[in-house]
Amino acid sequence: MPHQRYQPFHERVELPVVDPASRRWPTQRLESAPLWVPVDLRDGNQALREPMDTPRKRTMFDLFVAMGFKEIEVGYPSASQTDFDFVRHLVTDDAVPQDVTIVVFTPARRDLVERTFESIRGMPSGTDSARVVVHLYVATAPAWRQVVLGRDRAELLALVRDAAEDVHRFADDPRCPDVRFQFSPEVFNATEPDFALEVCNTITELWDASPQRPVVHNLPATVEISTPNLYADQIEYMHRSLDRRDSVILSVHPHNDRGTGVACAELALLAGAQRVEGCLFGNGERTGNVDLVTLALNLYSQGINPMIDFSDIDLVRATVEHCNRMPVHPRHPYGGELAYTAFSGTHQDAISKGLAHHQATAVGLGMAVSRAPWAVPYLPIDPADVGRTYEALIRVNSQSGKGGIAHLLNLHQGLELPKALQADFSRVAQVEADRSGEELTPKQLWEMFRARYLAPVHDGPIIFTSWQTAETAPGLHEFVAEVTTDDREVEARGTGNGPLSALTAMLGGLGVTVEIVSYSEHALDRGVDSPASAYVQLRHVEDHYWGVGQDTSVLAASVHAVLAAVNRLPR
User: Fold this and answer.
1) Residue 202 phi/psi, 5° resolution?
2) I need a labelling partner for 62 at 20 to 30 A (CA). Which of 242, 330, 477, 519 fits?
3) Which helix (H) or strand (E) holds 407?
4) Alpha helix locations (H) across 72-217?
5) Average pLDDT, the chain
6) Domains parsed from the chain with CATH numbers
7) In a 10 Å sphere around its CB, with 0-12 CB exposed, 13-18 middle and 19+ buried, how is residue 70 labelled?
8) What's the pLDDT tens digit per position in 320-338?
9) What is the pLDDT of residues 247-269, one digit of tens each?
10) Mean pLDDT of 390-406
């Protein structure tokens, strides 16, 4: 691989001079959400194999509104009839809520600027603010100027000025709604800092930006070519150098060519950016636009209100997949199908213990579980906050451990398995998972568990036709049973200091010598009629055998557990 063909970023792109002593972004902290602007309907749409039609675009637009986005880029009206028609659809159907501003995108060419304004004619003006932002762009980086546009800096600046004047003139048309203006020096991150600043300041003046009618300067990392800290330096330079800074909304539009789009956006916010353009789940040309889901929920995980509603992340994902006709990766941060799922045994054990501790903490604080402070290992946020249930957190395959298996049996069947029984059953599940190479469902685990530990009470060499126990003297119990064994029926008796002791004595009389090593039981539900589950571990010779019994009677459940374990002994 001829790596020497590629120059380091700092050798091919002029960087702003930033005095390390005065650099501010490294010490800043994010404390509030920026203005989010989803560009799925324009930038994201341009990157689809099958661009959206009007019904799919409307579905996506309605999702944005429902989630609480207040500024939405809706199209590139001069690029296609489909985009033009969708903008007209929003205008003529009066589909844009009064508190939402739409953005329309146009290149710096007079006929295309005019076509863009045609798309928004007739849209009612807002009561408090502009209903539309007209977004003008032109590429400013040297390679684009020289290779694509064939213009030097002075010529490009003249082109930008002419286009900005066209925008201003068309906005004065009485048929046009009240608009605000936005400018993007495309490939800002590869543009000479002084030229990017000159172009932006020229437009700020020409459009007469004011605090009441601010201009958006959007600074795209159109092709991500540097580490995020260098992009942050570029943004801080513009933040500190722009004219009429109180009349400028500083926006960023990172792409993800290096896989660090989210980091670039977060550092840009630390450096002074106030607005972020991106796509839900990061769709976009090449490796995508910055992902607004990840950015917003990163803030949420730090206790900052993202101002966007992600309480039903599965609905958001399903809608995006439908509109884009592209799947979201199962391991996508926060929104992927498997984002909160653990197969690894160590992860499962930590999550299971963490959930139990969280529940106990909530009880101790006297508050709802959904309001208690969150600190569960491996889960940066509570999946329930984004509409996920806990059922999918732990799933079992050949990589899983006893803690995850026990968690699923507890979640779905109410079982509280002793640790030694967890280990015993996990070995069985591991063998089956290795054999099949597939995930074991909670239903499969329960069937395996039931067949191994509960069913033998009715299927084995010793079957009780009937039984009873009674205290015959203080501290002395007798156990009597009608037993079917070796195809014959006998009455067997045994005595001991408790019912189970008398039962093992009775079994000894039948030639089955066992000792109860451990015993535990619990109710499966609340209420006096709730079934009980009993767990018994027997020692026979040098080996141990587990049995489980369930019944509304704790004693009956215990007897069934002993008999199930006995019927698992070598015949």
Assistant:
1) -60, -45
2) 330
3) helix 402-413
4) 81-92, 110-120, 142-143, 153-171, 193-206
5) 94
6) 3-324 (3.20.20.70), 345-455 (1.10.287.1400), 456-566 (3.30.160.270)
7) middle
8) 999 999 999 999 999 999 9
9) 999 999 999 999 999 999 999 99
10) 85
